[in-house]
Design a protein that fits this description.
Layout (H helix, E strand, L loop, with lengths): L1 E6 L6 H10 L4 E3 H9 L6 H7 L4 E2 L2 E2 L1 H8 L3 H25 L5 E5 L14 E6 L2 H9 L6 H10 L3 H6 L3 E4 L4 H16 L5
Parallel strand pairs: 1-5, 1-6, 2-5, 6-7
Antiparallel strand pairs: 3-4
Helix pairs in contact: 2-5
Length: about 200
């Protein structure tokens, strides 16, 4: 089994690309989605987060706005939160790999692959990328996003150029969806030996 790490900075189109891998029948582990489940209604992390950050949870699980207000721009609080979340996500990831161990290829969709040292845990890395003006327009179109918030997020992420330099594959989302899908198919063929790659 080949484990492909899929990553990309905010607004690059990583979720779209992950969905394309799924459409092609490749199992995808979505780290963000797992975090949402663990922090949602009845999620196993809700009591731990409530204990570490009182007042940040409710009947629907973690109130992401309240929690964000406590950890955003506060490195010590962020570290405390990561100490709760990361081991739980790692456990889910191991279970996913075990479930799909017969597959020729699986994708780990990990937004902070380079930032959090995940690159050592994958066989190959695909970086989703788009030109900076495209990225900026996409991110600033999101509800509640500001220039300041965007700048803070970018400051926490490895620059796109560095990610591309560390990648085995770069998937551009600057063109049409069909062009992006063709890139995804080429990577699958290359890694699984399927088709004429």
């Amino acid at each position: 089994m080949i484990v492909l790490g899929l990553t990309g900075s905010i607004g690059m189109g990583k979720s779209t690309v992950a969905a394309m891998f799924e459409d092609e029948g490749v199992p995808v582990f979505d780290a963000d989605e797992v975090v949402h489940q663990l922090q949602g209604r009845g999620g196993s992390l809700v009591p731990k987060i409530q204990a570490a950050f009182p007042g940040t949870t409710g009947p629907d699980g973690v109130d992401r706005i309240q929690l964000g207000a406590q950890v955003f721009g506060n490195p010590a609080a962020l570290k405390r939160l990561e100490a709760v979340v990361h081991p739980a996500v790692a456990e889910e990831r191991q279970a996913f790999l075990l479930r799909h161990r017969q597959e020729p290829l699986v994708v780990l969709d990990i937004p902070l692959l380079f930032e959090k040292g995940g690159a050592e845990r994958v066989d190959k890395i695909a970086v989703v990328s788009a030109p900076a003006p495209v990225q900026r327009a996409r991110v600033l179109a999101r509800p509640g996003m500001t220039e300041e918030k965007f700048a803070q997020i970018l400051a926490l992420q490895t620059p796109d150029a560095e990610k591309r330099a560390g990648a085995d594959f770069v998937i551009s989302t600057a063109g049409s969806l069909d062009e992006t899908r063709a890139s995804v198919r080429r990577i699958i063929a290359c890694l699984t030996g399927a088709g004429d790659g």
